[in-house]
Specification:
Layout lengths: L32 H15 L23 E6 L4 E5 L5 E2 L4 H13 L1 H8 L12 H5 L10 H9 L6 H16 L7 H8 L3 H12 L7 H12 L2 E2 L1 H12 L14 H14 L5 H7 L4 E3 L4 E6 L3 E6 L10 H13 L12
Antiparallel strand pairs: 1-2, 1-7, 3-4, 5-6, 6-7
């Protein structure tokens, strides 16, 4: 699923340029509810029959996913939500958890320490690259690839591993506004096949970049990736980051505005792995994908779009999710870089 560094992943999703005539802009508010509802359903209908991509198989349990599943949810910073398709179908959050755990760690450790310890630059290499560590003298480059995510998880506060898990579980559940459950089957399947992550953890330990038991860190990271969410959950989690860390429905301050800003910054530049540059150029929003087929994207101040569809492209990103997100970013004015002149 990952590419050799000499053969970067293309962004092979062509967009009908004639549709740009009705493109919305990022300034101002979201369109009115009736327009959003219509556009969400239209976008679902446009891409529901796509057959490109392959369901992830390197984690055996994920291979059982129905490739026809396709769900969309847009949640606003005012608490409104709009969904189409399989928006209540639950799936494991996987790598999307990296963004929210990073925000939680930034909230407790602070901007400077986390930047120094984890890094913020794109590796240009696959998400599970070992070479990226060796090329940077054992230092992780960003929290959205596995090495940086393991290092981030190692910084979670707690006197015991149970305390650390409680912090992660409570934190991610607070983002969602409900108690997220662990998918025991996915967790077991990942624990049986995560030797590469364990090796990355041990390599980081050998460089002194993590100072705790790498086996425990890997197990903790695997657990956070195995929590079950739907697009309705992910959209409200993203909308919390879009709202300065305040949950749009519960009103709880989940993380600080500064931690939200830091998480969105690294999502924008590294959240889609080696396709992150193309993603930002074409879609113009901070985003994070997961190997189960989820994608969450955030329009700061406006809200968040979450998609779910298991078939992935060669970079590990959902094919239907990319198409739908790009279309909606243009039609609903979510692209941060789309504006008009002030007259």
């Amino acid at each position: 699923m990952s590419n050799h560094p000499e053969n970067p992943v293309p962004f092979p999703y062509k967009y009908d340029q004639t549709q740009l005539e009705s493109e919305a802009v990022s300034t101002g508010d979201l369109p009115e509810a009736s327009i959003i509802e219509k556009m969400m359903q239209k976008t679902y209908d446009m891409y529901a029959d796509l057959t490109s991509g392959e369901v992830a198989r390197y984690i055996p349990r994920l291979a059982d996913a129905d490739p026809r599943w396709f769900g969309l949810t847009l949640a606003s910073t005012t608490g409104s939500a709009f969904s189409s398709g399989d928006s209540r179908q639950e799936f494991s959050i996987q790598s999307i958890s990296k963004a929210f755990v990073y925000a939680l760690v930034c909230d407790t450790r602070g901007h400077d320490e986390v930047r120094e310890r984890i890094g913020v630059n794109n590796t240009g290499l696959p998400f599970n690259s070992v070479i990226a560590i060796e090329l940077n003298a054992g230092h992780t480059m960003n929290p959205m690839v596995n090495a940086g995510a393991l290092a981030t998880t190692s910084l979670v506060p707690g006197a015991s591993w149970d305390d650390k898990w409680d912090f992660i579980h409570r934190g991610l559940s607070s983002f969602a506004g409900r108690d997220l459950l662990l998918d025991d089957e996915v967790y077991t399947s990942e624990m049986e096949t995560n030797l590469r992550n364990l090796s990355i953890g041990r390599l980081l330990q050998s460089y002194g970049h993590i100072t705790v038991d790498p086996e425990c860190v890997t197990e903790l990271y695997t657990r956070q990736c195995s929590l079950r969410v739907s697009t309705e959950d992910l959209a409200i989690m993203g909308a919390t980051l879009a709202n300065g860390g305040v949950h749009p429905v519960t009103g709880a301050q989940v993380v600080s505005a500064a931690a939200s800003r830091d998480a969105l910054s690294v999502m924008a530049t590294t959240g889609m792995y080696e396709a992150s540059g193309d993603w930002l150029f074409e879609i113009g929003m901070p985003g994070k994908s997961g190997v189960a087929g989820g994608i969450v994207t955030i329009a700061p101040g406006k809200g968040s779009l979450a998609t779910f569809s298991p078939p992935l492209d060669s970079a590990g990103n959902s094919v239907r999710g990319i198409h739908a997100t790009r279309h909606l970013s243009r039609k609903l004015g979510l692209n941060l870089f789309s504006s008009t002149a002030r007259l």
